[in-house]
Amino acid sequence: MTRFLLRRILFGVLVLWLVATTVFLLFFAGPADSVARRLAGPRAPIEVINQIKDTLGLNRPLWEQYVSFLGNLLHGDLGISFISQTPVTTLIVQSLPGTLWLVAGSAVLWMTAGITGGVISATRPRGLRDRVTTVLVLAGISVPTFILGMLMIYLALSVFPWFGLGPGPYISPLVDFRGFLQVMIMPWVCLAVVQAAVYVRLTRGSMLDTLGEDYIRTARAKGAPEHRIIYRHGLRAALTPVITQFGVDIGTLLGGVVVTESVFGLQGLGQLMIRSVRDGDLPVIIGAAILAAAFIVIANILVDVAYSFLDPRVRLA
Amino acid sequence: MSLTDAATEAEHVPEQVAVVQGKGPWQLAWERLTRDRAAMVSLGVIAVIVLLAVLAPVFAAVTGHDPQEQFPSIGLSPQGLPIGPGSGFWLGADSLGRDLFVRLLYGARISLLVGLLSTLLATVFGVVVGMFAGFYGGWVDGVLARVLDVVLSFPYLLVAIVLVAALGAGVPLMIFVIAFFSFAAMARVVRGQTIAYREREFIEAARSLGAGKVRTMFVDVLPNLIAPVTVLATLLIPTSIVFEATLSFLGLGVDPRTPSWGAILADSIDFFRVSPGLLIFPAAMLLLTTLAFNLLGDGIRDALDPRSDRLHTRK
Q: Where are the domains of chain B?
């Protein structure tokens, strides 16, 4: 176990190093002037460009820049935003709660809906409820997230204005709980609809596989009640791939729920990234992208470890 | 049985052949497809959209509205808000007083261009890489399969964001990014199919006749892959179209002035309360197009593999 964990972590570090190196090369390889121009944006005056060249040391050889880039990264120093002149880490810390709350709240919704839907359609395959679920899943998968979000905003503002829901920046629940709910409910539902569709499909497939196993027949032969067969024997084993997907998804989404955040103006990590791309604020993009990669790597390690606890057949070596 | 009987029977054979006509698998598949009402309607919808996209300049000439031209005096109300559908502007005007209908048609060009081109790229590379991985096996497969896994585990928006930030937005980059992710999906399917065919007798026969590996791959394996590849390619088109719309919506795709469905929707965000058409028409175009391609893909799958069951074999 320890050896497995160690190897997994080493591999994760290797992946992160590759990501950091790729990002570094994408942004910094090339003549100093053009790099500075790219960092400063097309309209920046020549003084700004010279200043950027000085502060970032773009005139040094590439490997020297690379070493200091990695060194800063290891110290958690992601540089300073060109636009707001604040440290990138501060911007990220400010944007993190919005994303965190969005993912957490939505995860509860989509897991509940996804697993329930999957079990319902797997226990009576091809029945009416299965067909209805399948159609809903297809709808959830085919509607682009941003269109779903915009339709929700339209309904909330024009058709059901008395709910008081609306798009807006994240409000801390400690400051204004009502405001927090008014801002968060729509993004929660929007993200959950899209995700739940995937989870219904996954749970249904996994449940159908599990219910076809020999030990389920044994349980039936013993005369175990149907609900016990479905939940204790079936669902428990069927959940392993669902949990795996869940871990991977959480890791990916924590790095920024780009589309949902942008549609609802939530100002989380994803929207921070989009805004930075529009403004050409490269230090922020680099920092946020590496953070997102780190979330994904960590989530994958946790999933691998969790796997061995969930499924006793899996041996880690 | 006497000799003469056999002779008369032999004489009858050509007549029977003339009555029962042999049908090739493609002919059968086409007949099954034409019987599929949803697929045929979808094909019609796609044809109309393609036609509208091709004829976009004609409509621009007929209405007298260039997609980029702003008509603040007639397209906007005295309060400066976009007007709704009417005789001059068939689907209304956008927030800058541009003709929404004409812009949607030009948007269809971008969507179809990106959707088809990136799918074509992805299919060519996906088939080649998938076949090599599946057919050669060993370390070639080990490396390629690993690469595909890595590509498929990338969050595509994150990659797109970093690439756009580093290289600048534009249609070619967008096509490349979309093709890059679709390619991995295609290659994975092709690899699986190739592995399944690799051990079959007709491959062994080709090998024992002295055919080289590359020849066997392209002459013997490839024709068997046409069915799954066609189905997946048809299904990759709507995915690519949605991907393009999403990127353009986020401002990472085409130049914001270019009429793309995603960009049109992004523009509408502050105005769809006063003019719901700004949201409804582009959204409907996008949904209709993707739905049509998806249903057509399903239809082709059913037509090529009659054993499949539409509702229950979707992955």
A: 47-308
